[in-house]
Design brief:
With 408 residues, the protein is α+β, with helices and mostly antiparallel strands. The protein contains 11 helices and 10 strands. Strand 9 and strand 10 form a beta hairpin. It comes from Trinickia symbiotica.
Length: 408
């Protein structure tokens, strides 16, 4: 049994190593995504105009009036002092072509006092420019910038499959890490004084043992992050009932036509405030998302004063049909079945935000550890593969030498 497990671990590791190195290093960085992005791009995030900020709804109306091609898709409903108002945008449908306008950007930073545009960027573009660097790393983490094929997100599926293999490999690895009850202490030890291959081996084996629990959590949640609907939700729903996912109504999958009336932002916020009282959500609406392709609004609830230090299961979201105002789904942390709570915990666990700042530190260090474990695993495999080749070559030469010594 053990030889089979060792072989499985070897081939699982070889198959996933390069992907896990990229995911581990990028994950270590994006644990601090907001802080690093703001530090790299102060002109995009910081407002220098003194004065009283205008209401975000007024700023949104002004932006869309100044450029009729623009439709705002994400709008924070609070402005932090000294910060710009960063909104998500998309192109409206061009009547001449029936297709959305090509804007060349999907995020706009507005001066909250004057309403002037301080910056634009295409979030997630394959660019290493200073303004796009952190979004590039973030998107690289879960898509590798692979294309869509036949409506299938190749990057998400690939990283989801890597997560599945990694999850299985975590089980295999812990089984082979303890060859016997008498030698279990070796699996926790690091031979620092010996260095060389012995230390490389211990970094891989013992490092994996010490971090096994957190590595397993990151592996399982990486599957949920990429393959929630096609894989994880169907499995979880067999064990525990799940609340329907947002946007499951077929009516919501019909895009909004140019002539169709859509509820205004002010109207949907009124509906959202009433829903918060009805659902006993302790926070006010903090941000508004509009999805033209789904004809839906989503409202995010949070306390603007403490949102940067969020912890736990995250924020509540409620969704409505953009045309009728009919409810289209909800995600309220801490409520629902055991399966609902499991699904709610996936992103907070994967990002470490479930434990606040300490959790993010752990996840960032784990990302580095994943890269180290992958590199040391490849190093061990290359050394053993070389040893096997040399042994095979020596075995092949041995009969020839024996034949030469045999008298004719």
């Amino acid at each position: 049994m053990r030889p089979l497990l060792v072989r499985l671990h070897r081939w699982f590791g070889i198959a996933t190593a390069s992907f896990l190195i990229v995911a581990g290093l990028s994950g270590a960085v994006i644990a601090w995504y907001q802080e690093l992005d703001a530090a790299l791009n102060p002109a995009f995030f910081r407002s220098v105009t003194p004065g009283r900020p205008q209401p975000p709804l007024a700023l949104a109306d002004r932006l869309e009036a100044a450029d009729p091609r623009i439709a705002i898709t994400y709008l924070p409903l609070h402005v932090e002092v000294g910060h710009t108002l960063i909104v998500g945008v998309a192109g409206r449908t061009n009547p001449a072509t029936g297709k959305p306008y090509e804007l060349g950007f999907n995020q706009v930073a507005l001066d909250p006092v004057t309403g002037a545009i301080q910056g634009r960027r295409a979030w997630g573009a394959p660019s290493l420019s200073r303004l796009n660097l952190l979004p590039f790393v973030y998107k690289l983490h879960y898509t590798l910038f692979l294309p869509l094929r036949g409506g299938l997100d190749m990057g998400r599926w690939l990283m989801g499959i890597v997560g599945i293999v990694w999850t299985i490999d975590c089980i295999v690895a812990i089984m082979i890490a303890f060859p016997s009850a008498k030698t279990w202490r070796k699996s926790f030890a690091f031979r620092m004084k010996r260095g060389g291959y012995a230390l490389v081996f211990d970094l891989h084996r013992s490092g994996g043992v010490w971090l096994w629990a957190v590595l397993s959590i990151v592996a399982v949640t990486s599957v949920s992050m990429n393959l929630a609907d096609p894989v994880v939700r169907p499995i979880v729903s067999r064990l525990s009932p799940l609340e329907p996912a947002p946007f499951t109504s077929s009516a919501l999958r019909q895009p909004v036509l140019a002539h169709e009336p859509v509820l205004s932002r002010e109207q949907i916020i009124e509906i959202a405030e009433a829903a918060a009282r009805r659902e006993h959500i302790p926070h006010t609406p903090g941000a508004l998302r509009y999805a033209p392709g789904l004809a839906a609004y989503g409202v995010r609830y949070f306390d603007a004063s403490s949102h940067r230090n969020e912890a736990g299961l995250g924020d509540a979201w409620l969704y409505w049909d953009a045309r009728t105002g009919a409810p289209a789904g909800r995600q309220i942390p801490g409520r629902g079945s055991a399966g609902d709570l499991f699904m709610q915990a996936q992103f907070p666990l994967h990002s470490g935000r479930i434990a606040g700042l300490a959790g993010r530190v752990v996840v960032s260090m784990t990302g580095l550890a994943v890269a180290v474990l992958s590199v040391t695993g490849l190093a061990i495999w290359l050394r053993k593969a070389r040893a096997r080749r040399l042994a095979a070559a020596a075995a092949a030469r041995r009969p020839a030498r024996e034949h030469e010594r045999t008298p004719v």
